[in-house]
Every structure is written in structure tokens, then in C-alpha cells.
Amino acid sequence: MTVLNSPISHRQTLVISVHDVAPSTFQVSKRAVRRMEQFGATCSLLVVPGRWNGASLSDSPKFIDWLHECEERGHEIVQHGYTHEKLEAPSWSRMQSAVLTRGCNEFHSLGYSVAIRRMELGLKQMLNYDFAPTGFVPPGWLASEGTIQAAKDLGFAYLTTRTRFLHLAAGQSHTIPAWSHRPNSTLSFAGALWWQIGTASRLLFPSSLRLALHPGDVSDKKLMDVSERCVRRLLDSGYESYTYQELIAPKVLQAC
Predict the structure, then answer these.
(1) β-pair partners for 160
(2) Cα distance between residue 80 and residue 214, in whole Å
(3) What is the rounded average pLDDT for all residues in the chain?
(4) Which of 5, 26, 63, 79 is the most exposed, having the fewest neighbouring CB atoms within 10 Å of its CB?
């Protein structure tokens, strides 16, 4: 008998995402992937397709080659917004994004027409370099209803928010929280402590989890040490590493 087995239904699923992957963060992104590979983990690499921090994809052929090499090693390439910039937004949006994500509000309050236009521009850049992302993650995990609909209409299979994994192709929503650090902040210590306490809790009461690594986290030795300890403990206890794409690609098992 054939049985379909999807990681998204497991209680010990771990997704590690490397954020803000771009030519301007090439070296730190490489370091993050290399550090996770030492644990046998695969990552979802969130690539900024537009011009960001003064550089574009076209400026670094070596960066493009590296991304393709990562794909060959089992990592996933994900579209991460378009230019990752702060846009004009209503005061409630600016306040929320400032508190939660330090102003990463690119797709937080966009209407459908603007959202799909920016999304298409980013997707065109990805396709130009032979990347075909199946998922879209907005900067700061902040997405308006128009953004979610635009992602679905463009054929993206999934979109993530800070607390949920939206399987757009299936019309399903799954609660899988994402943890992230707060580098260069008075909240850095509290965030790192939360990772450690939360990891201990997950070992006692397993449930699916997403861990996000941003450039500032990787550059901060103390935060990266905490991240590595948490990943090691989770994987050693039986958690399995998956990319976002693998969450919606059920494996076929043969059962007697």
C-alpha cells in the first residue's frame, strides 16, 4: 500500500531560513549556510531579487554561481520581497513594522495591484538567472491581504508570516512560529535567552519550528553560538531539517 507522508504534519520538523541573501551579504550568507551544513541541515535561502544595499544580482556573477551550487546541495532559493525597502505606509503599519521588524514593511500594507507588480519585477529577476522559486516570504514576514492574493495568483505555492505557513496551492494555513534574534539591540540578550528556553521547551513538548538567521545574527559571535547550540540540540533530539519547499512535497512511503 502507498502512503503519502508530509513533513508538515510531523511534530519534530525544523526549518532553518537564511534571510536577506544578496550580493551585499554574500560573505555572511555563505558563512551561515556553511555553519548549518556542519549539522547536516539544509536551509531556505531568502534572496532579495532587486537592488538592495547598493548592489544588484547582476553585479555579482560569483554570487549567482554560489546560489546554484547551494541548490545542488539541497538548499532552497526563495523570493524575499523585491527591494526590501521601507515604503510609505499608514501610521499603524509603520508602528507595527518598527516594533516587530525594524521597519521592514515592503509588502505590509500594499494593495493588490502594487503588490503583484513588485512581486513580478522580483520574480523576473529570479527567472533571469535560472531560479524558479516556489515560495514568497515578504520582508519582516509582513504581508497584506493583497500581497497574499498576488502571491497565489502568480503561482507561488506558499507564503510565510511570522507565525504561519500558508500553503497557497492547497488553501491551507499551518501554525509554525518563526524565531529570530535582535542583534545590535537592548533586546539581544532577551532574544537569545528565549531561543535557549524555547529550545528546552521544544525538547520536552515537540512541535514544528522555524529558526531565522539574519546577517546581523551571523556577524554576532554570541548570537551565532546560541543559534548553533539550539540547532544542534534540536537535531540531536530527533528534529529533522527541511526546507520550506519540502514541507509541501510529500514523500511516498511503501507500507505493508
Answers:
(1) 165
(2) 12
(3) 90
(4) 5
